[in-house]
Structures are given as structure tokens and as C-alpha cells.
Design brief:
By secondary structure, the protein is mostly beta strands. Among the domains are: 41 residues, no CATH class; 121 residues, Immunoglobulin-like (Sandwich); 292 residues. 6% of the residues lie in helices and 35% in strands. A hairpin with a 5-residue loop joins strand 16 and strand 17.
């Protein structure tokens, strides 16, 4: 129950009760009559807000092995509260940090906070790097950094530069004199900026351990961009490789070789002295230099402008710095050159920590990130839920193999649910890389995953069971390939199962993929642990496939499919030699690959005995998070099973369910809400 800021009892699976004055939430099960009475009393008394109730971290969500995912989180009580307020004329870091005499900086609070204490931060722009000196000691003795209720707290890794701009001279532009006079390029030296030993305008974005990166010469520039960023009135400018490129475009900047001068051409050839120009110079914004701190909460703060590099190592705008048991919630992470948030072991060249993961990442908005939204290695017992992640991957470095809205390595007992991941390019929505175990990806909406070598969800080299269910995956297009090994264009898959076994893929809606809705690949020669990947024992159950290049593309016969719903023919593929469209499924046979309709799939291979065709119409609006859809025909039903008792938006199922992520599959066009966030 919320009784004052910072004292929240965590909740997850909920039902809603409405009185007309406020909205109250409680668990469907385990709510005592006294609790219901308390809820009713608070409603009638005009209590404004949300009542949150749970019992010992239960979520009601089962992991693939049938155990419930249990959160370690507990109600918080704070022994002491400090305040930071850089707009208060009495603020100073020599103050005691009271509300009347607050700290000037958040960094000061980070040096004095002890377990069981918090800092409440007032509205303001804080241009600093927050380096916590201490972590908490347990779920009930956390250290919390939180925005005051209703406050707009923005931490920026940039510096505002209003002065020092001069016309750019001495460099060639391939323009006639008259045209050259109309182009307004401005120059600024950076010597006056306090880089504190880290000048991102003199450092390339690629870091260490690039054994997999083998670009062609024309692809090198993507990796050799400088890490520093320039913003005008909040808008990120594009970095160009050569000064002469400024002649053909505005909204761009160029760095001199030593990183101590930049040249900018602003939108409309504007004068930078007349606008708010910010230079991102910090690698990280909230990151302990002491590795391994635990039990820290960051709540309700916006973070912007991180001039960090491309992974690995994974060094995010916010970083757990190889710590564990953190909560990152209700934050905004925007404009990171490389990674927005890292939550794991960070670097595969370091020994793994004794304890890693156990993070809770929820209700955050991650936007405009070059490579990865959320990254983590060896992530265990972690909950990532109800986040909005969008506009990730614009750096176009997918051939460095560390991209994604969410990119996690070696997950164990993790739950990714209720997230929205949209408008990514050159980056998968979710990539689970290498030896993932007992991890569930459920109830997410992802789409507009463009020009990627994989697609919506990529499960790689995992020999133990994982589960992908109740998701909507909408529109994926293939990537260009490349590299010195001449990788051909491919990808555009909804879900890719690569050298992974015993995956359950159930009750998803996958639509408008350029290639297969679900793609399986064997990687027998890649030894993970003690053996190669077989891609066997996987189950594809009760999914809906809509206007995909192909539906299921099996790499061998030792997988199963049943209860899936297909379109018979959506009318755009007529060439009989073109083996895409028409809901075709692929399967290898005696050295050839067979392209089968549903009848042949059932008759010759015994697959999808309960599958069916339907006449469907589906439109998804990823921005409004609505879907207008209908399906007519004989719709199969299957036992709900213990894992699928709730659908994408939390509705409770009966004993049987139709295919897809929602319980209701209307026979006339119906507009429904598909926002899965709690």
C-alpha cells in the first residue's frame, strides 16, 4: 500500500476494481476479507491513488520448469531521507541534506547514503555522474535514489555550450563560391570542457575484443564514429565521416582528428549561439565505480546524453557495474550512443561475479539508443517487465553481434513480460544469446523490427528448455548482410531458434514477417558446453500466422507443431516457383527442403493435426497499441495448460483456449487494446 513516497508493496498479477473516484488493484488470489474491507473503506473515503497488494513477492507466472517466478522484493521502510534540489538558492553540498537545506548535487547524496536510506530529488537538470559509494544490505535495507512525487528530474551527461562558436574556415567544400556562402558551418574548440580524462570526441565507438567483427572497408565508418554526441534543442545531430559531407546536409557535425574541435551545421543553417546546443561528454550517468554493489533502487528519474561505446564491455548509461539486486523503475533513458542499461556481468573477459542479476527493471521508457536498450551477461533470476523500448539500433552495427532492444547472455530463471519494443532497426527486439535456461518471454508486443539479420526474438545456442508465449510480433524485414565474409541478405524472421532445444513457442501472433514466422537452424559444429546444437524437441503450439513469407521453417523433423492457425492464401504470391507466401511450412527431406501446405504438413508428417486455416483480417497499430482483427472458419481449441491460464492482457482463461495471444478471437472486425504493460 502506498502511504508515502518510497513505501510501496510490490504487485504484479492484478485485477482492477473501479469506484468512479479512483482505481484500486489487488491480487486475484490470496486477498483476505480484511484487505477487501480496507480497499472499500479507502475508496469510500476518497483515497486517491493506487493500492498495491502482494504476498511475499508472488507473481502468479510460471517459469518453463513449472515453478512460479518469485520476486525477492519486499516493502521498503527508510530510516533516513536526504534531499537534493539544485534549484533551491540555499542548496549546497556542505548542507546536511534536509528538505530545508538540501544538497546541491545527487552525487553528494551518493557519497553519504547508507543501507536503509534514500535521497529524494527535486525538479531540476543535474549535469553530473552519480557514483554510489555504498549499496544496501538486503531487500528491506535498500538505498534508494528517487524523484520527488511530481518532480521532473533530469540527469544529463552533456554540457550546454552557448559561447565559443565561430564560423568554420579553412576546410574544403565541393561547392561553387555562391553556394558555399549559403552554407553556415560553425566551429568550436573543446579545450574548456572538463572531460575528467574521458574525451568521447577523440575516441571511436568500437571497444575491445572484436574477434567477430570483420567489416569490409566501406563498413568501417559505422564502428569508427566518435562517441561524442551533439544535440540542438533536444534533437540529436548525425555525425559525418568527412567535413565535405556537411555541404550536402544540415543537422550534422564533424570531429577534427584530435577530438578537440567540432564543426556543426545546424538545421536550417541556424546559428548555434541562438539555440540550446548540448555536447554529450560523459560515458555513464549512474554507475558505481566500485563493482558489485547490491540492493540499490533508481526510481522516476530521466537520464539523457551518454557518450558511451559499443559493447562489449557493456557499459550503459545506467550500469549495475556487475552488482545485483537492483531495481530500476519508472525512469526514462534517452540518447545513449551505445547502451542504455546494463544489468549483468558486463564483460566476458572478466571472471564472473559470485552473484549476478536478480534485477527488477520495470515501467521504464528507453528511447533513441545506438546499439542496445537493455544489455546483460549471465543474468539470473531477473524480472524485466512493462518497459517501453523504441528507436534502438540506428548505429547499424549488427555485425558486431551485440544489438537488440533487449540483449541478454546466459539467462537463468528470468522473466521478460509485458514489454513493448517497437521501431528498431538493425537490432532484434529480444536476443537471448548462449546457454539460456528456464527463461520465459511472455506477453510482450514487438514490431517494426527492420533490416535485421534475425528478427523479433532470437534464441541462440540454448540446450535447456525456454518458453516464448502470448506475444505479438508484427513486421520484421531482412538485413543487408555484409562483412568481409560476404554474408548474404537474410533475416526478417519473427522468432529464430538457432541451435536451441526444447523451446515451447505457444499462443503468439506473428504477422508480416518478410521470411518465416518461426525459423529453426541447426548449429551442430558450434560446441556449447559439451555438445553442438541440435534444434530438436521444440514445440510450436497454438500460434497465429498472418501474411508471413513462410509460417514454420523446421530444420529437421524432430520438432512438433499443433493447433496453429494459418491463412490459406493472401493473394500476393502467384509464381509457382516462388516458395513463399500461402502460409507454407518448410521441412527437410532426403537432402531437399519440402514446401508444404497445411494438408500435406498433416498428411505426410503428422504435424498440426489440430491446426486449421482461417480467413483473417488483422491490423496492428504499434503506436496506439491497438489491433483490429477478425477470423472466420473452424477455429481450433486446445487445453489451456498450467502455463497459459492468462492471455497477453491478463485475462483469465477457462479450460480451453483458441490460438493466439488473446482469449477472444472475434469473427467480425473488432478493435482491441494490446498494451501489455501493467
Amino acid at each position: 500500500m502506498k502511504n508515502h513516497p518510497g513505501n510501496e508493496i510490490p504487485f504484479t498479477r492484478v485485477t482492477e476494481c473501479r469506484t468512479g473516484r479512483c482505481r484500486l488493484r489487488a491480487h486475484r488470489s490470496g486477498v483476505r476479507p480484511t484487505t477487501v474491507l480496507l480497499i472499500t473503506t479507502l475508496c469510500l473515503a476518497g483515497f486517491a491513488g493506487v493500492l498495491l497488494f502482494s504476498e511475499e513477492g508472488t507473481t502468479g507466472v510460471l517459469l518453463p520448469d513449472g515453478r512460479e517466478f518469485i520476486s525477492w522484493e519486499r516493502p521498503l521502510q527508510f530510516a533516513r531521507t536526504y534531499y537534493a534540489d539544485n534549484r533551491n538558492p540555499r542548496a549546497a553540498d556542505s548542507n546536511p541534506g534536509t528538505k530545508e537545506r538540501p544538497f546541491l548535487t545527487i552525487s553528494k547524496a551518493a557519497q553519504v547514503l547508507q543501507p536503509g536510506e534514500r535521497v529524494v530529488i527535486m525538479t531540476g537538470v543535474y549535469r553530473e555522474r552519480i557514483d554510489p559509494a555504498c549499496g544496501g544490505t538486503g531487500p528491506d535495507k535498500m538505498i534508494s535514489y528517487e524523484a520527488a512525487p511530481g518532480a521532473n528530474v533530469v540527469v544529463k551527461g552533456s554540457r550546454l555550450v552557448k559561447t565559443g562558436w565561430e564560423p568554420s574556415t579553412g576546410f574544403k567544400l565541393a561547392l561553387p563560391a555562391a553556394a558555399r556562402a549559403k552554407v553556415k558551418i560553425y566551429h568550436r574548440r573543446l579545450d574548456d570542457l572538463d572531460f575528467q580524462g574521458y574525451n568521447p570526441f577523440g575516441m571511436v565507438s568500437i571497444m575491445q575484443d572484436r574477434v567477430y567483427l570483420k567489416p569490409k572497408p566501406e563498413e568501417l565508418w559505422r564502428h569508427l564514429k566518435r562517441r561524442g554526441m551533439v544535440f540542438m534543442d533536444g534533437r540529436r545531430l548525425e555525425q559525418v565521416e568527412l567535413y565535405q559531407e556537411l555541404s550536402g546536409r544540415d543537422s550534422a557535425f564533424w570531429c577534427e582528428h584530435d577530438g578537440l574541435a567540432i564543426h556543426v551545421r545546424l538545421p536550417g543553417d541556424a546559428d548555434p549561439a541562438q539555440h540550446e546546443v548540448e555536447l554529450a561528454i560523459q560515458e555513464q550517468l549512474f554507475a558505481p565505480r566500485t563493482r558489485g554493489l547490491s540492493y540499490i533502487r533508481v526510481k522516476g528519474i530521466s537520464f539523457e546524453h551518454a557518450a558511451n561505446a559499443f559493447p562489449v564491455p557493456q557499459r550503459g548509461m545506467i550500469s549495475l557495474s556487475r552488482g545485483h539486486h537492483w531495481i530500476i523503475e519508472d525512469c526514462v533513458l534517452r540518447h545513449a550512443n551505445g547502451v542504455a542499461l546494463d544489468i549483468g556481468a558486463q564483460d566476458w573477459d572478466m571472471e564472473p561475479p559470485a552473484v549476478i542479476g536478480h534485477a527488477i527493471v520495470r515501467r521504464n521508457h528507453i528511447d533513441d539508443v545506438g546499439v542496445c536498450g537493455i544489455a546483460g551477461m549471465a543474468v539470473q533470476d531477473t524480472l524485466i517487465e512493462s518497459n517501453l523500448i523504441e528507436h534502438v539500433g540506428y548505429q547499424d552495427v549488427e555485425l558486431a553481434w551485440e544489438t537488440g532492444g533487449i540483449k541478454l547472455h546466459s539467462t537463468k530463471n528470468c522473466l521478460l513480460r509485458g514489454n513493448v519494443i517497437r521501431h528498431t532497426i538493425h537490432a532484434e527486439a529480444i536476443w537471448l544469446d548462449y546457454q539460456n535456461t528456464n527463461t520465459r518471454v511472455t506477453g510482450n508486443v514487438m514490431g517494426d523490427t527492420l533490416e535485421t539479420l534475425r528478427g523479433g526474438i532470437y534464441l541462440e545456442a540454448s540446450h535447456d528448455s525456454n518458453m516464448i508465449d502470448n506475444n505479438i510480433i508484427w513486421k520484421a524485414t531482412e538485413g543487408a548482410g555484409g562483412g568481409s565474409y560476404n554474408m548474404p541478405p537474410h533475416g526478417g524472421w519473427g522468432i529464430t531458434v538457432d541451435g536451441s532445444d526444447e523451446t515451447v513457442i505457444a499462443h503468439n501472433l506473428i504477422g508480416y514477417t518478410q521470411d518465416a514466422a518461426i525459423k529453426f537452424r541447426n548449429i551442430e559444429g558450434r560446441i556449447v558446453g559439451s555438445r553442438g546444437g541440435t534444434t530438436r524437441g521444440n514445440k510450436v503450439l497454438n500460434n497465429i500466422f498472418y501474411r508471413c513469407g513462410k509460417a514454420i521453417d523446421f530444420s529437421n523433423r524432430d520438432n512438433t507443431a499443433d493447433g496453429n492457425l494459418y491463412m490459406r492464401d493472401w493473394g500476393e504470391v502467384r509464381d509457382e516457383t516462388q516458395p513463399v507466401g500461402r502460409g507454407l511450412n518448410w521441412i527437410p527431406d532426403a537432402g531437399a527442403t519440402l514446401h508444404l501446405d497445411l494438408e500435406a504438413w498433416q498428411k505426410f508428417f503428422g504435424l498440426d493435426k489440430n491446426g486449421a486455416y482461417a480467413d483473417m483480417s488483422i491490423e496492428v497499430d504499434l503506436d496506439a497499441l491497438t489491433m483490429t482483427w477478425s477470423a472466420s472458419g473452424t477455429i481450433p481449441q486446445a487445453p489451456s495448460g498450467k502455463h497459459f491460464q492468462r492471455d497477453l492482457v491478463g485475462q483469465a482463461a477457462g479450460n480451453v483456449r483458441k490460438p493466439g495471444p488473446l482469449l477472444r478471437l472475434p469473427d467480425t472486425p473488432t478493435k482491441v487494446n494490446i498494451d501489455p504493460r501493467r
